[in-house]
């Protein structure tokens, strides 16, 4: 009892500290008080950032000393994932801006590619509406599980086929619930809920999705095993379960929402799942080189082929740029800068290195071990021999003297 009182007193002092430090940290202070009063094992999430101000570090140390759990979280700074941090207008503006630069007249929407044929000089792309396009190079940028649905003539190398057939996509149902006000903020909540798998709560995570104009919303995901259970249910059932869980975590105000909308990405023909593809065990070790390696006139892009931010929008842009440079280096190398050519050559040499299979690496290692052992034995023999020579020399001189 005395211990709890002492902790409460300490926490009040800390809150005064935090109030003086700034508004956001005073929210943390309020949460601390609530955690203590509710006697619940709360976990505090803190951005792990090399530029973390010393005050944040001190708060973390204080939390740990008082036996609160702290979850360190890699900070997603604009430098790391710039596209995710587009502040206004949403991520669709990325596609729209690109389309404007390319020219809408050069973009064909609603035309699924069904067939890609190629020979030594040309590639021919056929769509579901039987339109055909003859070109020098093709960049396939849809995710691997959708790329396998396209028919390739001649067939792709077996290593590429095996890779894409073993890269399943995840399953997520995304929902957005809109409100008159972001009532959770007034209560000192961030709107971020991380919930374990349970029959009471369908979602695993929610975030505050209030727009820059202040339209209050919560966004969340029903994922994995729960997605496979909730996908077969009616949308109104999901709505009821989601809102009930929000009421449980955030209070009765959560029931007075304006609108609920959800999207099951697995049932979308040209998504087939969400958010990204993963590799089956062993695939990265043995088949990874086929991920980016062009197959004749076909080049591969899409976020799954990115070396950074794989599975995110920034990864998709990086992959697109890399594939474009690949094609230009073959068709119009003159337009590339020295830096682009250098980056391309560097990544190609990295790929070649990665293509050395573990068995060839093992062979090289075995050879190195054998050679080292042989050299060691030879050196030892030489030393023994030299010792004998030295002994003879010493004996000769001592006899002579
Ligand atoms: C619900 C959800 C939330 C996400 N949240 C975030 C986030 O917060 N931050 C983030 O960075 N990323 C997020 N992502 C991931 C992000 O959307 C992807 O990483 C990104 O869109 C990948 O881009 P891409 O160009 O590689 O592939 P896609 O965006 O999947 O584009 C592939 C395109 O190919 C088309 N296509 C498929 N098959 C064919 C065919 N046969 N012929 C012609 N066209 C075809 C599809 O219609 C699609 O337009 C999220 C994804 C989802 C689904």
Task: List the SSEs and their pairings.
Layout: H1 2-21, H2 23-38, E1 43-48, H3 54-65, E2 69-74, H4 92-102, E3 113-118, E4 123-127, E5 132-135, E6 138-140, H5 144-147, E7 151-153, H6 158-165, E8 172-179, H7 183-186, E9 193-194, E10 205-208, E11 216-223, H8 224-230, H9 235-250, E12 259-264, H10 283-286, E13 298-300, H11 313-331, H12 338-355, H13 358-400
Parallel strand pairs: 1-2, 3-7, 6-13
Antiparallel strand pairs: 3-4, 4-5, 8-11, 8-12, 9-10, 10-11
Helix pairs in contact: 1-2
Flavin-adenine dinucleotide is lined by residues 84, 112-113, 141-143, 146, 150, 172, 174, 265, 270, 274-276, 302-303, 311-313, 316.
Short description:
This protein is α/β, with parallel strands linked by helices and 401 residues long. 45% of the residues lie in helices and 16% in strands. A 5-stranded antiparallel beta sheet has the order 9-10-11-8-12. A 4-stranded mixed beta sheet has the order 5-4-3-7, with no helix packed on it.
Describe this protein's structure:
45% of the residues lie in helices and 16% in strands. With 401 residues, the protein is an alpha/beta fold. It folds into three domains: 2-74; 110-168 and 276-354, FAD/NAD(P)-binding domain (3-Layer(bba) Sandwich); 174-223 and 245-265, Alpha-Beta Complex (Polyamine Oxidase, Chain A, domain 2). The strands form four sheets. It has a five-stranded antiparallel beta sheet. The chain has a four-stranded mixed beta sheet with strand order 5-4-3-7, with no helix packed on it. The chain has a two-stranded parallel sheet with strand order 1-2. Strand 1, helix 3 and strand 2 (69-74) form a beta-alpha-beta unit. The longest helix has 43 residues, at 358-400. It binds flavin-adenine dinucleotide. The site of flavin-adenine dinucleotide (FAD) has 21 residues, from strand 8 and helix 11.
């Amino acid at each position: 009892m005395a211990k709890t009182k002492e902790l409460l007193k300490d926490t009040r002092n800390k809150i005064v500290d935090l109030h003086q430090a700034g508004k956001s940290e005073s929210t943390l202070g309020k949460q601390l008080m609530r955690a203590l009063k509710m006697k619940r094992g709360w976990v505090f999430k803190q951005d792990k950032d090399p530029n973390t101000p010393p005050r944040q570090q001190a708060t973390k140390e204080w939390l740990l000393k008082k036996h609160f759990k702290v979850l360190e979280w890699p900070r997603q700074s604009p430098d790391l994932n710039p596209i995710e941090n587009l502040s206004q207008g949403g991520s669709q503006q990325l596609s729209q801006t690109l389309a404007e630069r390319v020219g809408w007249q050069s973009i064909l929407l609603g035309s699924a590619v069904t067939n890609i044929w190629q020979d030594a000089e040309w590639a021919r792309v056929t769509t579901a509406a039987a339109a055909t396009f003859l070109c020098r190079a093709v960049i396939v940028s849809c995710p691997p599980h959708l790329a396998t649905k396209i028919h390739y003539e001649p067939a792709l190398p077996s290593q590429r086929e095996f890779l894409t057939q073993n890269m399943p996509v995840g399953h997520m149902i995304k929902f957005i619930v809109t409100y008159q006000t972001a009532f959770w903020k007034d209560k000192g909540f961030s709107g971020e809920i991380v919930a374990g798998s349970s029959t009471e709560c369908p979602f695993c995570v929610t975030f505050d999705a209030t727009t820059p104009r202040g339209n209050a919303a919560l966004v969340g995901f029903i994922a994995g095993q729960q997605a496979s259970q909730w996908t077969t249910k009616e949308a109104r059932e999901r709505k009821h379960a989601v809102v009930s869980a929000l009421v449980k975590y955030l209070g009765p105000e959560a029931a007075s929402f304006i609108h609920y909308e959800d999207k099951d990405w697995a049932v979308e023909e040209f998504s087939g799942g969400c958010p990204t593809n993963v590799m089956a065990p062993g695939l990265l070790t043995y088949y990874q080189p086929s991920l980016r390696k062009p197959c004749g006139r076909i080049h591969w892009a899409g976020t799954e082929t990115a070396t950074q931010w794989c599975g995110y929008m920034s990864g998709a842009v990086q992959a697109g740029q890399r594939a474009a440079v690949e094609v230009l280096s073959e068709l119009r190398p003159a337009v590339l800068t020295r830096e682009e050519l250098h980056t391309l050559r560097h990544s190609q040499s990295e790929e070649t290195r990665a293509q050395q299979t573990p068995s060839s690496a093992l062979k090289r290692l075995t050879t190195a071990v054998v050679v080292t052992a042989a050299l060691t034995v030879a050196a030892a023999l030489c030393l023994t021999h030299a010792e004998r020579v030295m002994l003879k020399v010493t004996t000769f001189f001592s006899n002579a003297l």
